[in-house]
Amino acid sequence: MQILLRELIPGDLIPGEGRAGTGAEYRDRELDVAAVTLGSGADCTVQIFGADVLRRHATLTPANPGFTLSCERGATVLVEGVPTGRARLEPGTVLELAGARLRIVVPPAGFDAALELEPQTKVSARAFEAAYATDLEHTRLGRRGSAWILGLGLLAIGLVIPWFVHLDWLPWWSSDQVWSSGPLLPAHGVAIGNDCGACHATPFQRVQDAACTDCHRAMTDHAPVPLSSHVGLDGVRCATCHKEHNTPPHITITADALCTDCHAAPDWPDNRLAAVSGFSEAAHPAFAADLLTSRHEARGTGLAYAWSWQSSPLPEARDPSNLKYPHDAHLDPGKVQHLVTGAALACGDCHTLQADEEHFAPIRMEQHCRDCHDLKFDRAAPDRELPHADPREALLVMEGHYLRLYADPDAGQPSRERRRLPDRARAADRCEGPAYLCARARTAREAETQFTVRGCVTCHEVNVHDTDDLFGRYQVAPIRLTPDFFRAARFNHRAHLTQRDATGDAACLTCHEADGSTASSDVLMPDIDQCVTCHGDHRQADLIPLNCVDCHSFHPGIATEAAE
Amino acid sequence: MFDNLLRYRSYRYLWWGLASIVAGWAIYASYSGSEPPNGGTWQGYVLGTWAALLIVWLTLLGVRKRSYRSRFGTTQGWTSAHVYLGLAAWVLATLHCALQFGWNVHTLAWALMSTVILSGVAGLYGYINYPAQLAANRAGHSRSDLFAELYELNRKGLDIARRCSADVQVGVQSSVEHTSLGGGVIAQLSGRDRSRFETIEGGRQPNVDQAPVIELVANRITRADRRAEVNHLQELLAILCRRQSILRRLRTDIRLQGWLKAWLYLHVPLTFATLAALVAHIVSTFIYW
User: For A251-306, how does the pLDDT look when each residue is reduced to its tens digit (9 = 90+)?
Assistant: First the structure.
């Protein structure tokens, strides 16, 4: 849009020189703009300075004929002497702003609109300075407004919205995770997900034990309940020790202080535990073996056995398992060889480490002994064996075997052994009389041999009772092999099999002196002096550190089990 | 003044800040290893409470500054303590959280606080370095003096230009009208010159540092055919060069003043954001205790 701006430049003297200047004159400017802007800003079409003049004060938009006046909000210009914000200006109208005068004139040919301008004659330096934005205060930047926006915004994001989420008022919002101060243990994360309320059930209340025992149902107390109150554990919550939301995830206290704060000087009633302040021979008591011990009493024609755990210091400990087993003989290749390979027996031939890498699979006669220790009882009938673990059944097998020998004419068919040893064959079996009586007498003789000379008695303790009843005379004492000599401790066998100077059986023998053990009652467990050659507590920097909880559990089942 | 601010009363608050940091470290060192250091232990609560109280007190500097009748310490003393204890607060809050960070409101509070303290450090740098540069640039004059001189030079220049040829008249008048000074945030802080001027042939051209219009007038001198015009042009040239110098000083002044204040536009709003995040941090901690 073509607009003519005719500026009247008054004539005067050149300031400070006192010589004549030029006379008044017009200067025409042809503007190709959509509108004429008035204001103190340098980018306005007509720059007018003044205390009340905004940077963009007013806009004059051509409206044939004349202009439309539009001032910024709150601003006015004088239209024919009247303060006006918006108006339609016909040709001939005069505007005034801070001493500048504008007259709307009829546009000459070729122009859409025209203005005559009489510029300001006096402008103060302060007004001139105010025309420029020279301070950040003059910009859109603000401190107060942004402080409010940021402050309230943060309160909304950090407090109000998560609180509404907690109240289930915003079901479409993902979660109140912004309150989570750190990750959960992965297992808890999988089980709970983003459900904060699973543990934080009541606002402003600490996490209660029910939140834990909801899943950890079988968890045992550290000490029997009556003792708990005495030692200050009464009222201690699970979360007092087990704190979630650490980075990285960590929930179990491992420091020795957890234990030694109380166990360094145990002072509770009926204490049976020695003081412990760390892991060294001085700070930790010597080990005591847990032994499965039997008590027996007469019942009927025999003895009734009852088993219970007893603790004994290692040097005096004897394993009362009722088994006869010399480790030294079985590890001596001159005496015992593997039935197939002919090699010496190895520890692993009988002791198989279980998946927990601490305990070993139970020893079974059928699996571990019977290859060598068969249960044949009649040299003339090498294909017959006694059943194991059932003396009554064994007697019946013997009786049946001999009854058939004496009663059945075909039972005496020569075997290869009989052919090889013709003179001795059946010499002891000769009997004149009824077959049944002969068989009973023969069974009694063989039973005495098996239970008191060789056979069962080789490995078992046998009680011989004074009775005529063959079935009540011999009682094999039951065998209970102790499955864990240190029930209150953890130990990883596999980790300890890796040694610098020993492998295989030698690694086992480092701690378990089986090759020198002549009796199965020997408890082949190492004492603390063996452990401290490699391990120590945090005070011994040159050793492999062991915390209490590396070997002991804070929630041992046996503590409450013993009390019950 | 700012030197005095740091040295206030023989570095009294530097020692207070250092004592806070040393005590904070001592508390942190008391972690026994039972659990990883974190904000939920007694050490964490002590350090966190201490840091939170410091943050609230640091914020009160804005109140104290406006309490002109207050006799509760001097503003200079408060500001000195604000600097040193503000830095100590960062250490204490970091020990409180034990560098356990995550995408949560707790780390947000720490991050906002860190930004506030970092902007404060930037402000301190400005207060230490810029006043001397500002004084040197103004050469003993105030900004208003410079503007008054610029206005006078504009008026004189326009007067003389009217006595010159049309091309000079158009060029000088348009260069005065389209002189850019200050403006928006970026323009003020960068000192960028977007001045323009018009030639008689039409069209606006950049007039960066007023050099093109000065060149226009200087070239016109050699082509002037009247002695009077030569005198006018030489006088105009002197005015334009003086004007160029004043504009340079003003631009530098606006830029340095801008940087001297710019940090406050982060420091103040983020302080309130930090307070809000701190409230959210503390309240949410106890909602989900």
Answer: 888 888 888 988 999 888 888 889 999 999 999 999 999 999 999 888 877 888 99
Q: For tokens 């100590």, what's the residue?
A: B88
B270 touches chain A (CB under 8 A): yes
B62 CB near a chain A CB, below 8 Å?
Answer: no
Residues whose CB is less than 8 angstroms from the CB of residue A14 and which lie 6 or more positions away in sequence, other chains included: A20, A21, B159, B160, B163
Q: Are B181 and A134 within 8 A, CB to CB? A: yes
For residue A349, pLDDT over 70 is answered with yes
* ipTM, 2 dp: 0.83
Residue B142 has which token pair?
């105030």
Contact A143 B269 (CB under 8 A): yes
Q: How far apart are CA A178 and CA A161, in angstroms?
A: 10
Average pLDDT, chain A: 86
From B74's Cα to the closest Cα of chain A, the distance in A is 25
> φ, ψ for residue A310 (rounded to 5)?
-130, 150
Contact A15 B148 (CB under 8 A): no
- Among A124-128, A188-192, A426-430, B25-29, the least confident range: A426-430
pTM: 0.74
Q: What is the distance in angstroms between the Cα of B189 and the nearest Cα belonging to chain A?
A: 9
Determine the residue of chain A that is closest to B176 in CA distance. A42
Nearest to A467 by CA among A302, A304, A303, A305: A302
Burial of A53 (0-12, 13-18, 19+ CB in 10 A): buried
* Whether B102 and A163 lie within 8 Å, measured CB to CB: no
Rounded CA-CA distance A133/A120 in Å is 21
Residue of B nearest to A130 (CA): B147
For the stretch B185-189, contacts whose Cβ atoms lie closer than 8 Å and that sit 24 or more positions apart, written own/partner, are: B185/A136, B185/A139, B185/A140, B185/A141, B185/B258, B188/A133, B188/A134, B188/A135, B188/A136, B188/A139, B188/B254, B188/B255, B188/B258, B189/B255, B189/B258, B189/B259, B189/B262
The C-alpha atoms of residue B108 and residue A150 are separated, in whole angstroms, by: 13
Q: What angle do CA A318, A282, B31 make, to 5 degrees?
A: 125
- Check B264 against A163: CB less than 8 A apart: no
Taking CA–CA distances from B273, the nearest residue in chain A reads A151
Could you identify the residue written with the tokens 């059943």? Answer: A387
Cα distances (Å, whole numbers) of residue A420 to A377, A379, A401, A411, B2: 18, 12, 22, 18, 120
Residue in chain A nearest B200 by alpha carbon: A29
Q: Which residues of A touch B264 (CB under 8 A)?
A: 143
Chain A neighbors of B179, CB-CB under 8 A: 42
Q: Is B40 on the interface with A (CB under 8 A)?
A: yes
Q: Decide if B184 and A128 are in contact by the 8 Å CB cutoff.
A: no
**Pairs from A228-237 (Cβ < 8 Å, separation ≥ 24):** A230/A268, A230/A269, A231/A262, A231/A268, A232/A262, A237/A206, A237/A207, A237/A208, A237/A209
Give the DSSP per-residue string, A518-544: -STTB-----HHHHTTTEE-TT-TTSE
Q: Which of A379-393, A476-490, B53-67 has the lowest mean pLDDT?
A: B53-67
DSSP letter (8 states) at residue A197 = G
Residue in B closest to A21 by C-alpha: B163
Over range A501-528, report the average pLDDT: 93
Q: Is some CB atom of chain A closer than 8 A to the CB atom of B264?
A: yes
Distances (CA, A) of A250 to A94, A332, B93: 82, 50, 22
Which backbone phi and psi does A106 adopt, to 5 degrees?
-70, 125
Mean pLDDT in residue range A124-151 = 85
Name beta bridge partners: A323: A460
What does the alpha-carbon distance between residue A376 and residue A455 come to, in Å, rounded to a whole number? Answer: 8
User: Any bridge partners for residue A118, and if so which?
Assistant: A101
pLDDT band at residue A332, thresholds of 50, 70 and 90?
very high
